[in-house]
Amino acid sequence: MSTAGQIQQLRSTAAHLRSISGSIASSRALTVYSLAGPETWIGPTPQSCYDHLLSVRRQLQSNQQSLADTARHLDRQAMALEAQASIAGLVS
Amino acid sequence: MDLLAFDRARLEFLRTSIGAALEDLQLIRSDDAAATEAMRSIRAACRTLTESCLPRVQEVLSSEVMTAYRRSALGGTGGATSGYSTARDRSWEATTDPLAEPGRTPLGCRSYAEVIADIRSGAMIPMSTPIDAQGRAGAHYTSLTFAAGQPLVIGTEDLTSHLAKFLDFISDGLPIGWREHQELTIYYLSNARVTSAVHVLNAYDRDEGPETLIDRTTEATVSGYMVIHAESGTAELNVPIGPGIQDPTQSFVAITASSSGFSGMFFPDEPPDFEPVPPGDRYVNKDTWTFTRSASPMVDGWGTWNL
Predict the structure, then answer these.
(1) Complex-level ipTM
(2) What residues of A are in contact with residue B191 (Cβ under 8 Å)?
């Protein structure tokens, strides 16, 4: 694959990962736990449900952050490749 | 009996919201290799919402018992009275909590013998050991506190030695007696809260416990097996009843001194993901066990992380 193709692919993947990260961030799965607290219901089952929802939130937030980090890393790789290509162009 | 009290309008909104959250997650799709882990988590989250949360909400909303308990008198349920009093003041509906019903055991739960065998073979890995201050004044150490709403007893085994049992038996006829009991109990904790608190080793009140560095406290939700080794001992000074030769077992205990303690370890189903404690007030279960690595308990009622 050409350098331009590689750069394009890296940017495209980064944009895709960023899009997934954004979808997770705006998902109502991150906030639904706040509706399952003691202002709604109390007892062992409610506590268990609340813990499940909080656990889901934590896991999704962790993935959201991980996707954003990977996207940034891919962008940096694309920029490095671009810089290399422009230097090579100047030399030749 | 554990009760479940709820606000019907809010619970119906919660059901709708869980459905909406599920829809949002199901719309996220990707076959990119870099997103594999995230997609796996999203599928797991969908399963949790579909198989655990929604059915529980639905079960409460459609319960037949609910009508019978509607606006029943709440409050006499032991430690959770303040929350239930609030529920009563708000005229919430109530029912017997499904999780408190006997016979409800998690699917795929190991037996007592399986847990012991898996611990011995190394198939079950304990949670990371709390940090020990090694007796250095001013050094940091950590405690692990588990709050389990309804720990399920998998099995119990009497580990009292034959010698201790014999001493217990003959203590009835001796002026000085010694009774010792050791027991190993395995619990299954489902979605228990575990709090890792950081303390500084310095002088403190053993009844109140050491000061906690709040900003460094983290917590996680865990499921898994808690193995507790509890031991208790009682020394007795017995005085015979009546004068002369009589039945040596006819005596009364003049002085008695007891000691008890526990040690244990937790074996999580999955490695816990500790996060800072979320701000604000919330409903939490009462603390059940607290451990440190110290050989003797740092606070009365705390145990040692060891088996």
Answers:
(1) 0.89
(2) 47-48, 51-52, 55
